[in-house]
Amino acid sequence: MSTSEQTHVLIVGAGPTGLSTALSLLNQGFHDFLIVEETSSKGPASRAITIHAATLEALDSIHCADPLVDLGIKGEGMEVSDRSSTFLAATFSSLAPYTRFPFVLLLSQSTTEEVLEARLLKLGVSILKSEKVVGLKSKDDGSVQVLFESGKVISTRYVVGADGARSTIRHLVNIGFTDPDGMPVDEQLNQMILADVVFSSDSIVLPKNTVQGTTSAGRVFLTVPLPKSAESDESVYRIGFNVPISSGPLPSSPSTVYLQQFLNDQGPVQLSSDPSINPNPIYISKTIWATRFRTHAAIADKFLVHIPPDISDSTRRTAVILVGDAAHIHAPAGGLGMNLGIRDGIDLGVALSAHLKSPNEDNGVLEEYTSIRRRRALSTIRLTKRIMYVIGALGATRFLNISYWGIRLLALIPFLRRLVAWNLSGLGNR
Ligand SMILES: Cc1cc2nc3c(=O)[nH]c(=O)nc-3n(C[C@H](O)[C@H](O)[C@H](O)COP(=O)(O)OP(=O)(O)OC[C@H]3O[C@@H](n4cnc5c(N)ncnc54)[C@H](O)[C@@H]3O)c2cc1C
């Protein structure tokens, strides 16, 4: 049986991007919206673990930065090393003159989402959960009907597609989603595993506030300290590594034994369980969750479409706006994806409320917003491809190659460590 509701703005998807959009609209004093989500609750899987300085500043504008900072680890640096020394580094503390947040906040995406949802609830807005959008139908009065699997129908004027990389909304309005320059990520770095694990010893010799990458001939292994969970006192680490094509296909559900094997082969020596290379062997004692994925980049051909597309009367138009992963995806290098989505959402809240307050809702502010966010997405895709290229080049050209030694020497220069931190922080694009 269908039930019909009405709202001015419908946000589809309650991931970090949809939640940020909702909070930003409220912060602008706009309340006539609904936020819907297909799942009933999220599991332990937690993809993003980094919140950069400019994103924290944006979150501060909607009063969410401090509660997140209270729960996370203030990451001071990011380093990529081989098994002997460091050759790519970022020093986030060098951002101190420019921001209140001179660090990269290390916090699981699930906790970030919990904090944003709790704030939304405190402001009186609940997410409509277990409601999956399956269709859009435009009406003569200029509104659009959003159709749900449950039979529910919601009429609205603005649909915000915050429904992730496989966006139903993007498909329903036929927007293409392709790699902007057609250059795929290095095949060796293409298939990846991520997992949150606990080690057999709590006194492991890795720094507790640094993201560490270890490379060795076309291989990369990442270790990131995460905050202790509320339920237990165990230290949790995010590990991530590429699986070269020659090592076969990725298992759908990587086991602890599988993770340990790659850790011993390509991870930091101090974390190895192999006594022949580590005099104090330790091992993964628990896998909280693990996932596999392939890295690729894509951007939506348009972030904004009107329905019907050819109508000139602004009072009879409906807008569909894509944000977050629905609009762009890229390799996880530098931990930037969720950051881009949160800033899409917060900026959209500001732009959409300015648009709605303007006479006839037609002041060009939405077009300007989407063109700025599209440029930001393209530059982030370029940055992540560059990072992947450097990591791939370091692995492939070791020892004999001038560029290998060139990159190693550059990493010793403090100015460059600060420059890498600045680029990742997003502060240049406030
Ligand atoms: C393995 C991995 C590691 C990552 N690590 C990092 C990192 O360290 N740092 C970082 O910044 N980013 C990282 N990212 C990227 C980050 O996870 C995403 O950019 C972020 O989740 C995007 O948020 P979103 O809200 O746009 O989309 P999502 O998080 O995908 O949320 C979309 C929501 O929409 C809902 N939905 C989907 N379809 C429908 C529908 N039809 N109807 C109703 N609801 C629907 C979904 O259930 C979901 O809740 C990583 C990504 C991956 C895959």
UniProtKB/TrEMBL annotation:
GO MF annotation, one: oxidoreductase activity, acting on paired donors, with incorporation or reduction of molecular oxygen, NAD(P)H as one donor, and incorporation of one atom of oxygen
UniProt cofactor(s): FAD
Protein name, as recorded: FAD-binding domain-containing protein
InterPro entries the record matches: FAD-bd, FAD/NAD-bd_sf, RIFMO-like
Ranges of residues in domain FAD-binding: 7-183, 311-381
Top-rank lineage group of the source organism: Eukaryota
Keyword entries, A-Z: FAD, Flavoprotein, Oxidoreductase
Lineage: Eukaryota, Fungi, Dikarya, Basidiomycota, Agaricomycotina
